[in-house]
Write a structure and sequence with these properties.
The complex is a heterodimer of chains A (345) and B (806).
Chain A: H1 2-18, H2 22-33, H3 38-44, H4 51-82, H5 106-120, E1 124-125, E2 131-133, H6 134-137, E3 170-172, H7 178-187, E4 191-200, E5 212-222, H8 230-242, E6 248-253, E7 258-267, E8 284-293, H9 295-300, E9 309-316, H10 317-325, H11 338-341
Parallel strand pairs in A: 1-4
Antiparallel strand pairs in A: 2-3, 4-5, 5-9, 6-7, 7-8, 8-9
Chain B: E1 2-4, H1 5-11, H2 20-30, E2 34-39, E3 47-58, E4 61-70, E5 75-80, E6 90-94, E7 99-100, E8 109-110, E9 114-116, E10 119-121, E11 124-125, H3 159-162, E12 168-172, H4 186-196, E13 217-220, E14 226-235, H5 244-252, H6 260-272, E15 276-280, E16 288-293, E17 299-301, E18 307-309, E19 315-318, E20 323-326, E21 343-351, H7 353-360, H8 368-375, H9 381-396, E22 401-409, E23 417-421, H10 422-429, H11 435-444, E24 448-452, E25 455-459, H12 472-483, H13 504-519, E26 523-524, H14 533-539, H15 565-575, E27 582-596, E28 605-618, H16 621-639, E29 645-647, E30 655-665, E31 668-676, H17 678-683, E32 690-697, E33 720-729, H18 734-741, E34 747-754, E35 763-772, H19 781-799, E36 802-803
Parallel strand pairs in B: 13-16, 26-27
Antiparallel strand pairs in B: 1-12, 2-12, 3-4, 3-6, 4-5, 6-11, 7-8, 9-10, 14-21, 14-22, 15-21, 16-19, 17-18, 19-20, 23-25, 24-25, 27-28, 28-32, 29-30, 30-31, 31-32, 33-35, 33-36, 34-35
The chains are: A alpha+beta (345), B alpha+beta (806).
C-alpha cells in the first residue's frame, strides 16, 4: 500500500509539473484530488486495513493531499503569472494612435505668450481695425506732411480715397501706432495696454520682406515716469520668448511719433554676440524700436504733454517667431501651407 | 553713407585709447547706426607697384605674354593676359600672398607662385576690378589692366600708399540719418565724435572773397523756394584729374572721380553736406542766372540723355534763355563740364526741402544732392560750401581767378530758441544731470546755452534748426543719447492694483481659437486681406460691395475680403496637392462698404467685423458635414458664450443645394454651414474630394461674464441604457423621432443611420440609444421591456417606424 501511495505521489507531482495551461490544471486537480482520484480510491479502501496500517496510510494520504494542493496552487500562480491578456502576439514597434491634430498659427502662439506676460504686468489687450485713415495713421503721429511713408509706394490706400487728405484718405494700416491715439481718446490716461495685429506695406516681397506682417506694440501713459522704465517691458518680452535673460542695448533711433526714440538690439543668439552672418558680424540684432511718446501725439489724444508722458515698444512678431524657430522665409506665415503649420504643434 | 575715417580725423582728434571698433560702437549707441567698419589697408597687403621691363610672347599661348617686372626688391617673371601691356608701363602687381577677386567676380582668392602653360609666374598683373580699384580706373574691356601712368609712384610701393587707401571706411545706415540733415556731411559726424569724446572740433577752411569783384547777374524769382544763391565765375580751369587724395576720398565715399572740378564739388558735398553745382561758363547764355519755377510743359534734357517735361511746381536754374538744370536735383546735358572747359560758374545755393522732394518724386533714384536738400539744409552751410570749394579750386588750379561773384541771401535760417526747465529734465530722464554736464555736451553739439534759476535757455544751431530740433523734448533727446540711453538705470514698472483686467471679448476669441485647434483638430491659417478675383467670382460675392485698393499688389488682387470663404477655398485648393483630409480655420477681419466711425466723427471707415471660417476637407461628404455641424453645436458650450442654433432658412451662394444650414442667434442669421457646391468646386479646381465649410460673423458672439451652467445632482442608482434599431422612411427626420419620444426616457441619443443590404428600398435603418433613470428601486427586465415597447409604439404611430429585426 505504501508503495502504491508513493507511486501516486510521484506520478501526481510529475503530472502537475507538466501542466501547461490553467484549463489543463483544473483537469489535473480533479484527477489528483477529486472524488474519482486514486487518492480517493485509496481512502475508500482504508476501512479494510488493520488499524495500525490504517493510521499509517491515513497520515500518508493526508500528506500527499496537502502536497498536491500546495503544488497545484503554486502551479496555478505560475500559470497566471505567465498568462497575457492578449490572445496573440503584439508588435510593439507599431506607432501609437495619433491624438487629435490641430494647432494655432505660430504667430498666434507667440502673441498669446506675450499677452500672458503683459496681462500679468497689468496691461490690457486692445485691438484696432485693419482699415484706418491718414489722420490716424500719420497726422496724429507727427509724420511730416510729405513723409515718404504717406506715398502709395509705401502704403496701401483705398480706391477712391487715395487723392483725399486726412480722415478722408483711407488705408490698410501701415503700423499699429495709430491705434494708440484711438485707445487714449476712448479711455484716457493713465493707460497701459498692448495692441497686437497685422499691418500692411506696399513692398516687393522676398524671404525677408512681406506685404502683410504682424506687429506687437505696447504703450504706457502715466505721470512722472522715465523712459528708462521702457527697458523693463523689453526684458519682459525677450525673457518670455526665449525663456532666459537676453542681453540688450538701447541706442539712438528716430521715429516721428517719439522724442527721443530708441532702437533696442538684442545679443545675437546664433553667435552669442561674437559676430556672425546672421547679425552682419556685429553681434547685435535689431529687434524693437521704441521711444518716449512725442508731445504732438499726446496732443492728438487730447492729453496735456506737460502732465503726461509715456513710451512705446514695438516688436515685429514675424521676425521674433523666425528667430524662435529658425524660419528662413517670412512669406510662409501667410502661405496657409499645412506642411509648414503642422510644424508648430 | 560711406565715410572715410581719415577725413573725420582731419577735424577731430579721436582719443588714442579708442579703437575703431569702440568708436563705431559709441557712434551707434549715440548717433547713427554704423553697419560695418572696413579696413581698406588690409585689402592691399602684398599688392604693389610694378614696372614692366620686358614683354615677350608666350610660347604656348597666343593671348598670354611673359613680362619681366620690377617690383622694387627684385625683378620677377609674370605671365599676363592683359591687352594693354607695354615696356616701361607702371602696373599693379599682386604678389604671392595677396588676396584678389578673379575678374571681379566670386569669392576672393589668394595668389600663389605658379606655372601658366609651362611658364613660371610670380604673381599677377591686375585689372582694376580684381583689386577693388574700378572706381579709380574704369576698364574699357575685360582684358585691360591698370596703367598707373601719370601717378607718382615707384616699383615696390604698396598700392594702399599710392592710392591713399590706408584708411578705414565706416558704413552708416542711411535710415538712421533721415532726421539729421547735419550728419549728411562728414563734418557733422566729426562734431558728434567731438561731443561724445569731449574733444575740440577743428574749423573748416575759410576763404576771403574780394568784395570789390563785379557782381554775377543772379535773379531769384521765387524766394520761398530758393533762400540763398551764390554764383562765382572762375577762369583758369583745365581738364585735369583731381589729386589722388581727393579721388580716394570720393571712392571711399562711394563716388566715382570724374575731373578736378566735378570732384571738388562732390568732395565739398561729402565734407560739408552742402551740394554744389558747376556750369561751363560759356553755356550760361548772357552770363545771367535766373532761379524760377518752370513753365508748364517746358522741356529739359538731362545729363543722362533723358528729356523730362516740367511742371510749374518744378524749380529750375536758367540762363537768359532756357532752363539749364533741375535745381538741387539733376544737372542738364547742356551745362556739363567738358574737356574743353576753361571757365566755370560755381553754384552754391539753398533750396526749399519740400520743393526738392516734390520734384524728385518722379525719379526712381535719388541723387546725392537731392537726398541732402530733401532733409532741409540751413542757409549758413552755403558759407561752408563756398569757402571750402574756393580754397580747393585755388589749391588745385593755382592760376585760377574769380572774375565775378554774387551772394543773393534772402532768408537766413533762424536759430530756434527753446526753454528747458531743470526739474522737467530730471523727471523725464529719471535722474538728475548737473547743469555743468548739460551745458558742456550741448555746447559741443553747437548749442548756445544760458542757465539761470533752474531754466536752460537753449539756442539751437542753424544746422539743427530746419525742423530737427524744435521743442524741449528734442533737447532732452540729445542729452539722453549723448549720455547713452544704456547709461540710465532701468527702473521697474509699478503696478496699480485698483482693478483686475477682465476682457471678455479678447478671452472669448482666444477660447474659440483654442477650442478649434486643440479640441477639434483644426489648423489656424493666416491669409492676406486682399483676395484674388476668381475666388470671389466662384463664391458669387458681389465685387461692388468690396472695399478696393488703389494700388493693389497685382491687378487681380484689388478687392479686400468681404468674407473669409474665398480665401479658405484658395487655401484648400493649395493644400490638396499634399493632403487628402485636413481641417483649417481662420479668425480675421472682413470689410464691407458702409459707414463706421470708431474714434471720431470726421473719420468714416468701411464696416469692419471679425469673422470666423472653418473647413473640413475629406472624401465622405456626410461624415465631414456632420463633423463640422458638431463643431458648431458644441462651440458655445465649450467656449462659454451665448447659444447659437442651426436651422435651414436661406441657401448660401457657395453651398450645396441640399446640405446647408444657417447659423442663427436669437432668430438672426449670423452664419452658414454647408457642403461646398459642385459648381464652386469645379470653378476652383477642387477635385475628387468634398469640403464642409462654415462662416460666422464673430462680432455677434457674446461671451458669458462667468460660467453659467448649474450643477446637476448625480442619480443615486446607475442609468439603464438600451439600444433600439428601427426601420423608417428615408425622409423621416431625426428631429421628429427625437421630439416624439424625448419625454418617454431620461435621455435619447442618436447613434447612427444605415442604408443598404437588408434594408428595403426607400427605407433606412436608424439606431438610437435611450437611457432610463432608476427612481426608488432598480427596474426589472419586464418593466424595462414595457418602456421600450411604449417607445416603439409611439415611434410607429408618429413616424411609421418598425423594429429592425436582426
Amino acid at each position: 500500500m505504501e508503495e502504491t501511495l508513493k507511486k501516486v505521489k510521484e506520478e501526481g507531482l510529475e503530472t502537475i509539473s507538466n501542466v501547461k495551461t490553467l484549463e489543463e490544471l483544473e483537469v489535473v486537480r480533479k484527477d489528483l484530488t477529486g472524488k474519482k482520484s486514486k487518492l480517493a480510491e485509496v481512502m475508500q479502501n482504508m476501512r479494510n486495513l488493520a488499524p495500525e496500517e490504517k493510521k499509517q496510510v491515513g497520515m500518508l494520504t493526508t500528506e500527499i493531499k496537502n502536497v498536491f494542493a500546495e503544488k497545484l496552487d503554486q502551479k496555478e500562480q505560475e500559470l497566471i503569472d505567465q498568462k497575457s491578456v492578449l490572445d496573440g502576439p503584439i508588435d510593439l514597434s507599431i506607432p501609437g494612435k495619433k491624438v487629435s491634430e490641430g494647432a494655432l498659427h505660430p504667430i498666434t502662439q507667440m502673441k498669446y505668450d506675450l499677452n500672458d506676460a503683459f496681462l500679468s504686468l497689468g496691461f490690457e489687450v486692445y485691438s484696432e481695425d485693419d482699415i484706418s485713415s491718414e489722420k490716424y495713421a500719420f497726422d496724429n503721429l507727427n509724420f511730416a506732411k510729405d513723409h515718404p511713408a504717406r506715398q502709395s509706394m509705401d502704403t496701401y490706400w483705398l480706391e477712391g480715397t487715395e487723392d483725399k487728405e486726412g480722415a478722408e484718405r483711407l488705408c490698410l494700416r501701415p503700423h499699429l501706432t495709430g491705434g494708440s491715439v484711438r485707445y487714449l481718446l476712448k479711455h484716457g490716461a493713465p493707460a497701459r495696454f498692448v495692441y497686437p495685429g497685422p499691418v500692411f506695406r506696399n513692398e516687393t516681397t522676398d524671404a525677408r520682406h512681406e506685404r502683410a506682417f504682424y506687429q506687437y506694440e505696447a504703450l504706457i501713459v502715466d505721470k512722472n515716469i522715465s523712459f528708462s522704465s521702457g527697458m523693463v517691458m523689453i526684458q519682459t518680452i525677450l525673457e518670455k520668448v526665449f525663456g532666459r535673460k537676453i542681453n540688450t542695448r538701447m541706442r539712438e533711433g528716430f521715429f516721428p511719433f517719439t522724442e527721443p526714440g530708441y532702437e533696442i538690439d538684442m545679443e545675437c543668439l546664433v553667435c552669442g554676440g561674437k559676430g556672425c552672418k546672421v547679425c552682419n558680424h556685429n553681434g547685435w540684432i535689431e529687434v524693437m524700436p521704441g521711444g518716449v511718446i512725442h508731445p504732438n501725439v499726446l496732443k492728438s489724444a487730447n492729453l496735456d504733454p506737460e502732465e503726461w508722458t509715456g513710451f512705446y515698444i514695438n516688436i515685429g512678431l514675424d521676425r521674433l517667431v523666425m528667430m524662435r524657430y529658425g524660419v528662413d522665409d517670412v512669406r510662409l506665415f501667410h502661405s496657409a501651407d499645412l506642411r509648414f503649420l503642422k510644424e508648430f504643434k | 553713407m560711406r565715410v572715410s575715417l581719415n577725413l573725420i580725423k582731419k577735424y577731430v582728434n579721436i582719443p588714442k585709447d579708442i579703437d575703431e571698433k569702440q568708436m563705431a560702437y559709441d557712434l551707434t549707441l549715440r548717433t547713427v547706426e554704423v553697419e560695418n567698419v572696413e579696413n581698406l589697408a588690409e585689402k592691399y597687403q602684398n599688392i604693389c607697384v610694378g614696372k614692366i621691363l620686358e614683354v615677350k610672347a608666350h610660347p604656348n599661348a597666343d593671348k598670354l605674354r611673359i613680362c619681366k617686372v620690377d617690383v622694387g626688391s627684385k625683378t620677377v617673371q609674370i605671365v599676363c593676359g592683359g591687352s594693354n601691356l607695354y615696356e616701361g608701363e607702371s602696373v599693379v602687381v599682386a604678389l604671392p600672398g595677396a588676396v584678389v577677386v578673379w575678374h571681379g567676380e566670386g569669392e576672393p582668392v589668394t595668389i600663389k607662385e605658379t606655372k601658366m602653360r609651362g611658364e613660371d609666374s610670380y604673381g599677377m598683373i591686375c585689372a582694376s576690378s580684381e583689386v577693388f580699384l574700378d572706381s579709380f580706373f574704369p576698364a574699357q574691356s575685360e582684358t585691360e589692366i591698370i596703367d598707373l601712368k601719370g601717378i607718382d609712384c615707384n616699383p615696390g610701393d604698396n598700392i594702399a600708399d599710392v592710392m591713399d587707401l590706408n584708411d578705414t571706411v565706416l558704413e552708416i545706415d542711411n535710415k538712421s540719418l533721415s532726421n539729421r540733415p547735419d550728419l549728411w556731411g562728414y563734418y557733422g559726424l566729426a562734431r558728434e565724435l567731438s561731443t561724445i569724446y569731449r574733444v575740440p572740433l577743428k574749423p573748416l577752411d575759410t576763404y576771403e572773397v574780394d568784395s570789390s569783384l563785379p557782381k554775377y547777374d543772379v535773379t531769384i524769382q521765387d524766394e520761398d523756394k530758393c533762400h540763398r544763391y551764390i554764383a562765382a565765375e572762375i577762369d583758369g580751369i583745365k581738364d585735369i584729374s583731381s589729386p589722388i587724395w581727393m579721388q580716394s576720398t570720393l571712392v571711399k565715399g562711394g563716388m566715382r572721380p570724374i575731373n578736378a572740378i566735378v570732384d571738388i564739388t562732390n568732395y565739398v558735398m561729402l565734407v560739408t553736406g552742402q551740394p554744389l553745382h558747376a556750369f561751363d561758363k560759356t553755356h550760361v547764355i548772357d552770363e545771367k542766372i535766373v532761379v524760377r519755377n518752370a513753365k508748364e510743359g517746358e522741356e529739359l534734357l538731362l545729363l543722362d540723355d533723358n528729356t523730362i517735361t516740367l511742371t510749374k511746381d518744378d524749380l529750375v536754374i536758367c540762363d537768359a534763355k532756357k532752363p539749364m538744370c533741375l535745381a538741387g536735383i539733376r544737372g542738364g546735358k547742356d551745362d556739363s563740364i567738358l574737356p574743353d572747359t576753361t571757365g566755370i560758374v560755381l553754384e552754391v545755393a539753398n533750396f526749399d526741402a519740400g520743393t526738392i522732394r516734390k520734384t524728385d518724386k518722379r525719379f526712381a533714384e535719388k541723387t546725392d544732392s537731392a537726398i541732402r536738400f530733401e532733409k532741409g539744409l540751413d542757409t549758413q552751410r552755403v558759407d561752408e560750401g563756398i569757402n571750402l570749394s574756393l580754397s580747393l579750386i585755388k589749391e588745385i588750379f593755382p592760376d585760377s581767378k574769380i572774375i565775378k561773384y554774387n551772394d543773393v541771401y534772402l532768408h537766413p535760417t533762424e536759430k530756434n530758441i527753446i526753454e528747458v526747465s531743470e526739474s522737467w529734465l530730471t523727471e523725464r530722464l529719471g535722474k538728475e544731470i548737473d547743469s555743468k554736464t548739460v551745458k558742456e555736451l550741448l555746447t559741443y553739439l553747437g548749442y548756445e546755452v544760458k542757465y539761470s534759476k533752474g531754466i536752460y535757455e537753449v539756442t539751437v544751431p542753424t544746422y539743427r534748426s530746419t525742423g530737427d530740433v524744435t521743442i524741449k523734448d528734442d533737447v532732452m533727446g540729445d542729452i539722453a543719447r549723448i549720455l547713452s540711453f544704456d547709461s540710465f538705470e532701468r527702473k521697474p514698472l509699478t503696478i496699480n492694483l485698483d482693478h483686475s483686467i477682465k476682457q471678455n471679448d479678447y478671452l472669448l476669441e482666444r477660447r474659440i481659437k483654442e477650442y478649434l485647434a486643440f479640441r477639434c483638430g483644426f489648423y489656424e491659417i493666416f491669409t492676406y486681406p486682399w483676395i484674388e478675383e476668381k475666388y470671389l467670382d466662384a463664391v458669387g460675392i458681389n465685387k461692388d460691395n468690396c472695399v478696393k485698393l488703389a494700388t493693389p499688389p497685382a491687378p487681380e488682387l484689388k478687392n479686400l475680403k468681404a468674407s473669409l470663404i474665398p480665401g479658405m477655398i484658395e487655401a484648400i485648393s493649395k493644400n490638396l496637392r499634399y493632403y487628402d483630409e485636413f481641417k483649417m480655420f481662420e479668425y480675421d477681419e472682413v470689410y464691407q462698404k458702409g459707414a463706421y466711425s470708431p474714434s471720431s466723427e470726421d473719420e468714416v471707415l468701411p464696416i469692419q467685423t471679425k469673422s470666423l471660417v472653418a473647413s473640413i476637407t475629406g472624401k465622405d461628404a456626410k461624415k465631414i458635414f456632420y463633423e463640422l455641424k458638431g463643431v458648431i453645436e458644441q462651440m458655445a458650450t465649450y467656449t462659454h458664450m451665448d447659444n447659437i442654433r442651426l436651422e435651414q432658412k436661406e441657401k448660401p451662394s457657395w453651398a450645396d443645394i441640399n446640405a446647408y444650414l444657417n447659423i442663427t442667434k436669437d432668430g438672426e442669421v449670423i452664419g452658414n454651414l454647408g457642403l461646398l457646391s459642385t459648381r464652386v468646386m469645379s470653378q476652383t479646381k477642387i477635385k475628387r474630394t468634398n469640403v464642409a465649410l462654415m462662416e460666422i460673423d464673430a462680432s455677434k458672439f457674446t461671451s458669458f461674464a462667468s460660467r453659467t451652467n448649474k450643477y446637476k445632482k448625480l442619480p443615486e442608482l446607475p442609468l439603464i441604457e438600451k439600444d433600439l434599431s428601427i426601420i423608417i422612411n428615408t425622409d423621416t427626420k431625426w428631429e421628429d423621432i427625437y421630439k416624439s419620444i424625448k419625454n418617454l426616457a431620461y435621455e435619447v441619443e442618436f447613434v447612427d443611420e444605415y442604408y443598404g443590404n437588408h434594408i428595403p428600398e426607400g427605407k433606412k435603418s436608424l439606431t438610437l440609444k435611450v437611457r432610463f433613470i432608476n427612481e426608488d428601486v432598480s427596474m426589472n427586465a419586464e418593466q424595462i421591456n414595457e418602456k421600450m415597447t411604449d417607445i416603439l409604439n409611439v415611434l410607429n404611430k408618429k413616424c411609421g417606424a418598425e423594429l429592425r429585426l436582426e
